[in-house]
Amino acid sequence: MSSKILIIGACGQIGSELTYKLRSLFGNENVVASDISYNNLEIVNSGIFEIVDAQDYASVKTCIEKHQIDTVYLMAAMLSATGEKFPMKAWDLNMTSLFNVLNLARDKFIKRVFWPSSIAVFGSTTPTEFTPQYTIMEPSTVYGITKQVGERWCEYYQNKYKVDVRSVRYPGIISWKTQPGGGTTDYAVEIYHEAVKTKSYECFLKADTKLPMMYMDDAIKATVDIMTAKAKDIKIRSSYNLAAISFTPKEIAESIKKHMPDFKITYAPDYRQDIANSWPKSINDSYARQDWKWKHAFSLEDITEEMLFQLNKTYNNISKPL
């Protein structure tokens, strides 16, 4: 693996937990966290931290040279629901940041790049069940468009300039450690918080909206696994399909009720329903499982037990499983 790692967007939902994982694996001194502000003081105080504007080439390059970075994890992005409110800002952030890092790799300032894609690259014309690796991609959100275009550029830079860029298409990510960041799958995080705090939740998606989901630990494992795999085993340089489980708001509510029988859920679909309708219900990730031996660990029941246990410690100072 790398001798020096830079995480851009380290204060975000995935970036923060990735920072802790990489530091545990490779040492605090070898992992530089960066973001555009000092808002996440836990990350800021947990090791080396730099203010880096992902859209500013000079800012990124200066940090890379200062710390002799050779591997960059580009986690900065504007997500789906927020991106629909600020489409041009989403386009500028998501694309400019990627070009900055790819160009630094092309010019040999760094050796390896991780850039996350998303199931948002798919659209309403994509087969929704067991969505294949190679299929129709007509995304309907700005976020999805930036990810689809980004995949093409990653593959181009690998083919044209031999840039070692690696990517996975994240499904919805569930974590108790950080608050949701403006994604359409955020209900699957919010529901646990509200279950513990108020024993009720109003869901912004319909009860039967099935979407691919993954526990954060599995998402971090996949990220580390693809980056530590041998280059010859990474055969897809656009982005790999990645999957764990799929479920609906009704199913997650029923899972919670097994531990909290008085939990209640209501449904008030909003603009995010149209986004969810355009995404797959389940994902075929056989290439990732074959090429670099990806395997998930957490089921829905595992996720519910862990989320309720951890959030009860956070909100209610309860330190035993429900």
Structure description:
It is globular, with a radius of gyration of 19 Å. The protein has 322 residues and is an alpha/beta fold. Helix content is 43%, strand content 15%. The chain is built from 12 helices and 14 strands. The protein has helices spanning 13-26, 41-44, 57-67, 80-85, 87-106, 142-161, 187-198, 216-228, 249-257, 272-277, 286-291, 300-316; strands at residues 5-8, 31-35, 49-51, 71-74, 112-114, 117-118, 164-166, 168-170, 172-174, 200-203, 211-215, 240-241, 245-247, 264-267. The strands form 4 sheets. It has a 6-stranded parallel sheet with strand order 3-2-1-4-5-7, sandwiched between helices. Strands 6-8-12 form a 3-stranded parallel sheet. The chain starts with a strand and ends in a 6-residue tail after the last helix.
List keywords for this structure.
322 residues; alpha/beta; six-stranded parallel beta sheet; three-stranded parallel beta sheet; globular
Task: Tell me the span between the first and last alpha carbons.
Answer: 40 Å
What is the 3D shape?
Answer: globular
How large a portion of the residues is in β-strands, by DSSP E? 5-15%
Biggest β-sheet, characterized? 6 strands, parallel
| Number of beta-strand segments | 14
In N-to-C order, the SSE pattern is EHEHEHEHHEEHEEEHEEHEEHEHHH
Helix content: 40-55%
pLDDT < 50 runs, ≥5 residues: none
Number of helices: 12
For this entry, what is the oligomeric state of its chains?
single chain
How large is the radius of gyration? 19 Å
How are the strands of the largest sheet arranged?
Answer: 3-2-1-4-5-7
Q: What is the mean predicted local confidence, pLDDT?
A: 95
Structural class of the helix and strand makeup?
A: alpha/beta
